[in-house]
Amino acid sequence: MNESTLCHPIVDGELLLIRKQRGLGEGNLVGPGGKLEAGETPFEAARREVREELRVEPTGVEKCGEFGFHFRDDAPEEDSMYVHVFTADGIEGNPEATEEAIPEWHAVDDLPYDEMWVDDRIWMPHMLDGETFTGTFVLTDEGGAMHSYEMELGVDM
Ligand SMILES: Nc1nc2c([nH]c(=O)n2[C@H]2C[C@H](O)[C@@H](COP(=O)(O)OP(=O)(O)OP(=O)(O)O)O2)c(=O)[nH]1
Questions:
Q1: Closest CA to ligand 1's atom 25
Q2: What are the EC numbers (predicted)?
Q3: What distance lies between CA 62 and its chain's CA centroid?
C-alpha cells in the first residue's frame, strides 16, 4: 500500500492549499503533501512536503486523521493510497510557486470543493472543526464521483 501525507496550514481563517501541477490529482486544489520516503515517519514526510512544494516551514503540525483512498474500477491494490492528514497552525516564510505546486489561500468557510477531490467535502469540514477522523473512500469515474465511503469521528491519533 502506498502511504502519503496531506498538511493543511490554517492561518487567520484561511487554509493554504496548492494547485497541483503534476502526479495524482493534477489540476486539483489539495493540501500540500506526497508519498512517504523510506525510513520517514508520516509527521516528517508531512513537514518535508510542505517545505519542498511551497518553500515554507509549517509550525504546530498535528495529526487529525487518516483515510484509505481507492478507485472502484482498478485492481484493489494498484491505486490504493493511505493518506495521513495533518493541520498546521502557521508557516514560516512566504509560500512560493514551485514545479509541483502553486499556492492558494482560501477562506475556510468558503472552500471551492468543486475544484477538489470529491471526498474532501466529506472529511475536510471535520478537520476544520478540530475533529479527528478515520475513513475509507471509494471513487468512480476517474475520481469524478463517490462510489461509497465509511468514516468514524473522534478517533485517537
Ligand atoms: N486532498 C486529497 N488528497 C489526496 C486524496 N487522495 C490522495 O492520494 N491524495 C494526495 C495524498 C498525496 O499528497 C498525493 C499523492 O499523490 P502522488 O502519488 O501524485 O504524490 P505526489 O506526486 O504529490 O508526491 P511525491 O511524488 O512528491 O511523493 O495525493 C484525496 O482524496 N484528497
A1: 34
A2: 3.6.1.56
A3: 13
By most ligand atoms within 8 Å of CB, the mutation choice from 81, 121, 147 for ligand 1 is: 81
Measured distance CA(16)–CA(29) in Å, rounded: 10
Instruction: State how far the Cα of 46 lies from the Cα of 69, in Å rounded to an integer.
Output: 17
Domain coordinates in residue numbering, the chain:
2-153
- For the chain, give the percent of residues with pLDDT over 70: 96
Indicate whether this model's pTM tops 0.90.
yes
- Cα 140 to ligand 1 centre (Å): 17
Taking only the tens place, the pLDDT of each residue in 60-81 is 999 999 999 999 876 666 668 9
H-helix segments, the chain = 42-54, 120-128
Using CB distances shorter than 6 Å, the residues near ligand 1 are: 4-6, 23-25, 30-31, 33-35, 69, 81, 83, 117, 119-120
ipTM higher than 0.85? yes
Single-letter residue type at 137: F
Options 3.40.50.150, 3.40.50.1970, 3.90.79.10, 3.90.870.10; CATH for 2-153 is 3.90.79.10
**Using one digit for the tens of pLDDT, what is the confidence trace for 109-154?**
999 999 999 999 999 999 999 999 999 999 998 899 999 999 999 9
